[in-house]
Amino acid sequence: MAKAKTIFVCNECGYETAKWIGKCPACNSWNTFFEQKIEKYSETNKLEKKVESTPKPLNTYIGQETARTSTGFAELDRVLGGGLVKGSLILLGGEPGIGKSTLILQLCDKVKGEGKVLYVSGEESAEQIKLRADRLNIDNEEILFLGETNIEAVNDNIVELNPKLVIIDSIQTMFSEDLTSAAGSVSQVREITAQIMRICKSRGITTIIIGHVTKDGNIAGPRVLEHMVDTVLYIEGERYFSYRIIRSVKNRYGSTNEIGMFEMKQEGMCEITNPSEVLISERDDNPSGSCIIATMEGTRPVLIELQALTAQSVFGLPKRTANGVDYNRLALLIAVLEKKVGLLLGSQDVYLNVVGGMKINEPSIDLGIICVAASSYKNISIPKDTVIMGEVGLTGEVRRINLIEKRLKEAEKLGFKTCIIPESNKKVLKDEYKLDIIGVKNIQETMKKIGLK
After folding, report:
1. Per residue in 158-174, is it b (16+ CB within 10 Å) or e — as a string?
2. Phi-psi region of 28 (alpha: psi -120 to 50; beta: other; left: phi over 0)
3. What is the DSSP secondary structure assignment for residue 318, as one 8-state letter?
4. 168 Rama sector, left if φ>0, alpha if ψ -120 to 50, beta otherwise
5. How far, CA to CA in Å, does 32 sit from each of 172, 197, 221, 453?
6. What is the pLDDT of residues 115-147, one digit of tens each?
7. Which of the residue ranges 175-184, 210-219, 353-362 would you say has the lowest mean pLDDT?
8. Omega prior to 70 cis, within 30 of 0
9. What three-state secondary structure class fits 129?
10. Do 387 and 292 contact (CB within 8 A), yes or no?
11. What CA–CA distances, in Å, run from 102 to 9, 20, 46, 269?
12. How far is CA 246 from the centre of its chain?
């Protein structure tokens, strides 16, 4: 009997090789190769016949407006670009216990009256889903449950029922009988997603796939999974915080990097329509080492409280801790503060925290980081009604930021009186605001304006 041929496939990116190697040359991941048998299919086993097609000029096609269905959550509609698109394939990822299944079950109830909803679960039984539905007060007779992990059986039910919405929870538990590899492997995830995509797009069925994430925060399985789907959503949040943020990292039907904010309560996920007001609501007093910054999440301006604490270092090497911002960015800005302002932070431990558990990567918070670090070191409070924004360069200059008008309108709406912005942004302002807008060119000038020098 001839020996079956095998190949080794990277579990992260799908790279194939004839022998096992420790490090993947494509994605540089270690110990991700697993053995997989090569399946040979005869011509009679092919599911689809070859269809001849000819290219046509693009201008001969007629573009059609995509039909959307509201999810019932204004915040989720915002992230999706207006609602669920007919025939779209959505991938939802997040850590265990973050609220993925809870949000999806609430969504199934919100679309009541739009058509049948098929909820396919390979992880939980019908009794478990019913217990969660009772806790969330969900009563939708059009929600149909299917406890199945065989993708062929799932496809047969989709074809027979022709639902409006399909939920797959989760993609890593599904398997195809045509492949010998285990469920959750690269080949299984890739093949299952391709089958679901062919059926649902041909029939105009909106599909939401729930995916697990790795310890690095990325969706488990091959990266090709994110390329195949139309939209990729991530649910972020700290385990011990009640706030949850839904972030769009890919969206073929809307803007990317949009966020929607929710709060996990006993009755489920409740949307927060004004995140800025919630994130700064507990700032009653005005301690040193605290200020309000204006950042952009997609097209939405968000005001967030930034806190810093400096303390005398016990050891010879000072400690730098950043929660919610990049550690390297904090170290860089501290170096600029020491060089250009003369603050001796080399003997100080510096701790930085973004209130609410949010993560910010935008450079417009640089000036706020500089100010809160100096405020904590000198034990001088920054005025409570002041919002600070601006990017800081290595020479201490305050550089221009984008979408300044939206940030200022958000600050004005929430009752702030003073905004410190880059001078280059102030010169091009067209609208009039009730705010006292102060333009600064460098961090030395900023220190003087807020009373830190």
Report:
1. beebebbbbbbbbbbbb
2. left
3. -
4. beta
5. 16, 26, 11, 54
6. 899 999 988 888 999 999 999 998 888 999 999
7. 210-219
8. no
9. helix
10. yes
11. 34, 40, 39, 7
12. 6
CA 297 to chain centre: 10
DSSP for 245-284 reads EEEEEEETTS-SS-EEEEEEETTEEEEES-HHHHHTTT--
**The pTM of the whole model exceeds 0.85:** no
Sheet-wide strand order for 290-297: 320-323, 348-354, 300-312, 290-297, 386-388, 418-422, 436-440
Tokens representing 247 are 């972030």
Specify the DSSP class assigned to residue 387.
E
User: Is-contact 421 348, C-beta < 8 A?
Assistant: no
* Cβ neighbours around 74 below 10 Å, total: 11
Q: pLDDT per residue over 155-189, tens digit each?
A: 999 999 999 999 998 888 888 887 777 777 777 88
Q: Which of 152-156, 243-247, 274-278, 290-294 has the lowest mean pLDDT?
A: 274-278
Total number of residues shown for the chain? 453
Q: Please report, as a single letter, which amino acid is at residue 182.
A: A
Check if the beta carbon of residue 235 is closer than 8 Å to that of residue 98.
yes
Strand partners of residue 93 = 211, 234
